[in-house]
Amino acid sequence: EVQLVESGGGLVQPGRSLRLSCAASGFSFNDYAMYWVRQAPGKGLEWVSGISWNSGYIGYADSVKGRFTISRDNAKNSLYLQMNSLRTEDTALYYCGKKMSTAGTGWGAYDYWGQGALVIVSS
Amino acid sequence: AIQMTQSPSSLSAAVGDRVTITCRASQDIRNDLGWYQQKPGKAPKLLIYAASTLQSGVPSRISGSGSGTDFTLTISSLQPEDFATYYCLQDYNSPPTFGHGTKVEIK
User: Under DSSP, is residue A77 helix (H, G, I), strand (E, B) or coil?
Assistant: First the structure.
């Protein structure tokens, strides 16, 4: 059974940093691109960042570029999101997930999602 | 970034109704579009990928169509478990972008 479990969320002051982790199990982690999507309270979904299976291709939303860094450790079946210079508008539930297929060069469709890690940025 | 215009933003429908949700891309995205369903307090669930391919386990009353810039999600006969919010997502280029969502409510 595929499982994705996020951790590392919490309350943080504006300008500070936080690191999210996503522990993956039940599939061959090192074969799949992974991503982060967030959802502000009561709002829609926003794609944040994605990383290819070998970390060779990485993408970011314009809203987080230069502040957030995605990474992965295939030996530990783990995905990370380092969030620096946090802003109040970064307050959201952050989901990690996996690309459905190992084929293709695009970010593709996402077939498994975690339950999310809540990040609250407030003074 | 490609803009995805989703409509309507909400709709009320009865069980058994046919429901159609549309997404329009700001440029040609071929068929690189997926549809997701989200229920309150839950993670999104993939329904359709490549514009019209039904994800395994998704009931056949749900279908997707379109290519280029105009896409449609159709539920042929709305069931109680279909009341949720639906999002389209283009993955033609980076960054992928979601539509703003369509909330399907009970009439």
Answer: coil
Are A116 and B43 an interchain contact pair (Cβ–Cβ within 8 Å)?
yes
A111 → chain B, closest CA residue: B46
Cβ-nearest to A110 among B38, B46, B97: B46
DSSP A56: S
Is residue B37 within 8 A of residue B84, CB to CB? The reply is yes
CA distance linking residue B32 with residue A111, whole number of Å: 15
> What does the pLDDT look like over B11-29, one tens digit per residue?
999 999 999 999 999 999 9
Query: Is residue A107 predicted with pLDDT exceeding 90?
Result: no
For the CA atoms of B65, B54, A101, A114, the dihedral, rounded to the nearest 10 degrees, stands at: 110
